[in-house]
Write a structure and sequence with these properties.
The structure is a homodimer.
Chain A: E1 5-7, H1 13-16, H2 23-41, H3 57-70, E2 76-80, H4 84-97, E3 111-115, H5 120-129, E4 135-140, H6 147-168, E5 173-177, H7 184-191, E6 194-197, H8 211-219, H9 224-237, H10 247-260, E7 266-271, H11 277-291, E8 293-295, E9 301-304, E10 307-312, H12 321-326, E11 331-338, H13 355-358, H14 365-382, E12 387-392, H15 397-418, H16 429-439, H17 445-454
Parallel strand pairs in A: 2-3, 2-4, 4-5, 5-6, 7-10, 7-11, 11-12
Antiparallel strand pairs in A: 1-12, 8-9
Chain lengths: ~475, ~475
Amino acid sequence: MEPIALDITYAHADVIGEHGVSDSELDALAERGAQALEAVEGRRATDLRWMDLPYQEEVLRSVQAYAARVAGRFENVVVLGIGGSALGPRALHAALNGPYHDLAPPEGVPRLFVLDNVDPELIDAFLQTFDPATCLFNVISKSGSTAETMSQFLILRRRLIEALGREKHREHLVITTDARAGTLRPIVQEEGYDSFVVPDGVGGRFSVLSPVGLLSAALVGIDTPALCAGAARMDERCRTPKLRDNPALMYAALQWLMQSKGGKNIAVTFSYSQRLALLGDWYAQLLAESIGKKHARDGSIVHAGPTPVRAVGVTDQHSQVQLYTEGPFDKWFTFLSVATPAADVVIPSDFADRDALAYLGGHTLGELFAAERDGTRIALCDAGRPSVTIEFPRVEASSVGQYLYLMELSVALMGEFYGVDAFDQPGVEGGKVAAYALMGRKGYEERRAELEAGAPPRKPRIR
Amino acid sequence: MEPIALDITYAHADVIGEHGVSDSELDALAERGAQALEAVEGRRATDLRWMDLPYQEEVLRSVQAYAARVAGRFENVVVLGIGGSALGPRALHAALNGPYHDLAPPEGVPRLFVLDNVDPELIDAFLQTFDPATCLFNVISKSGSTAETMSQFLILRRRLIEALGREKHREHLVITTDARAGTLRPIVQEEGYDSFVVPDGVGGRFSVLSPVGLLSAALVGIDTPALCAGAARMDERCRTPKLRDNPALMYAALQWLMQSKGGKNIAVTFSYSQRLALLGDWYAQLLAESIGKKHARDGSIVHAGPTPVRAVGVTDQHSQVQLYTEGPFDKWFTFLSVATPAADVVIPSDFADRDALAYLGGHTLGELFAAERDGTRIALCDAGRPSVTIEFPRVEASSVGQYLYLMELSVALMGEFYGVDAFDQPGVEGGKVAAYALMGRKGYEERRAELEAGAPPRKPRIR
């Protein structure tokens, strides 16, 4: 398996100047980095069970067996899930099945849709477009109390029963939830649905290598063993406490230095690969929910957290690069690049008498794409903007698996550098509680009364 | 036509405290706002010709006539364009044709694809999936020298000629370019392609209401007259110099205050509408390229510019809201909301004995969606995070047209507040020149030599 590589050249002060990190800054973090790794590794066997997901061979086999059992039976696989239950499945499908899979799926392979919203205009359009009888619905919620996913479950279950009857509808549902606790597990048992387990110690944003991400991936033909093998390979590479040899540790240290010392509150994942672009959305959740915290672990108020931004090359050269090169020094960049594209296209040498076209003819799109990527990295460098590059040998399951684990571990390590709990998300409660109150959920009457009494006087609307 | 409304309640210091704006701060900007409007309006008839795009009836008619002429002849409309030539067409299609149009287009209406990248894996997949003979390609480039678009043009033109012959291939190309200058206009004349004009005084990011955005919209059945009527309506509303009555002026003033006084360098467009989500990408270019500037107009170095971020509700409640409520006070939020969704879905009252499900049954998804939106806005408010809401009466061409013009004018006005030229983009040259040099374009030999001589010594890659 070819490794993905982390190149920090353009983040180094020797190359880009004051906005880069220096050898002495990195050296000064070496000890702390080693401690961070020890702290995280020390929890592998206890609460951070996501660290062992690359090695769950029995789970892999059961996922593959289920996929083989239902192969050819459904035109569409539909994930009902949100957040970590949606971003992994969608990113894997985009990366490994490509941009037009759902328009023209290969013979016998289903399409994959991820319904991670409850916008009624979206769900109604889905119901108007798809016959539920052609779909397998993978309901994903560890607790079984996710309002969005459970609403979708109630709606689609009823449609299935109406269309197929009580008995047959079961075959169109497969539930991924807690092994014992929560609202969905007893429903699985009563109704006799097929099911998979979201293991303990695996938070939503760290769940892509559990059945949360693996099941839909296997159903649409993705090589899930290679995905896990890639993650395992990265795990092995990241056991060393040496900052300069450990890509997860280096990436975490850079993120920490860029923000704490460099004042850069924005982290841009700049994917020079259309297929890899949605990994940026997956990483955006991982980073934002893990590090975006009001309190440090010692209880002090820190309001920490970089803001993840996802850009796509070359596309966003024509949208965001003006700001990136000339705007505030508030960003650092992670280029995702692909060493060997799976295909290339030659540009014909027509209209060779026109200056604006002549230089293109005879080159390939791959050459143009690489020149623009390198040109943009150089332009950012010339403007004093730091970047690193994560280079994928190819876009394939093993390299994507490496990337997923690299970022998961790196974010866990960032938690140590930032001094925050990378594994909770207390800040989403406020909105949830307010929504429960507004929906009239039992037990939230007091909050509802508060909201009704405390609604601010509206300022005049401009219309 | 129902107006879209701007509600600033949750951005006001009376409601959210120190991170809001106060009446006195707004009052203090009144005079400057009026001057900003005068300055921008004063250029309407000279260089800011995009301000009159809502009134180009002849252009509208010619676009509609072309769409009527080719109606039913193509399965696919494919935009070859990037940046402003891509973001408008894509946002209009997503907003007004919905999420599954391309999977199941209505009888006689083509699909729409926007190829705004040269990633060889993307373009190869396109070529493998689509027969060019089923496609109408709309090539969009004012100068005709956009490397990405021209490469695609050369490739697809050659494929069309191979498949259909020299004579017939013409019917599959329609060119939107400068009226006289540039590389594409003479090609149009020599080859006899159908064509439309990108007028002078209309930069790429301000071009959505020119044929750049209107042509593909008309081809996929969007009500282009209603779009322009909406824009015209907003233009009329925004003639008043009174800050509190002029939504474009108010929005520009808020953006300026949030960054200059509040230190908020991130502007989040939080679309509580799946259909409207891509308007956030369109706005991201408009804001980033217009305001992200190294120099003020007086020549001083300012490194100005907010960073646009696009989020989707409720989806990103499970990805970004943790950071938004607890992270640094470095953001402000613009909610896009829809007063009356076009459809709704009732949640069945099954499993009513489970607390986590009982409160959902009998409600609609629309009610849940609205409760989560309002709950999130309240939670952000409770955490001291300012937001405004742009409320669309419905998702329809006239309201989208209002929004487009609102944001265009608002960004032009921001240029006045920030003191930068909102209509140039000098910062994209560096990357372009480096890419030209790397591709061996004539006239860039010196830069190539520089790049080859000056390449930084690579730091050891971690792999």
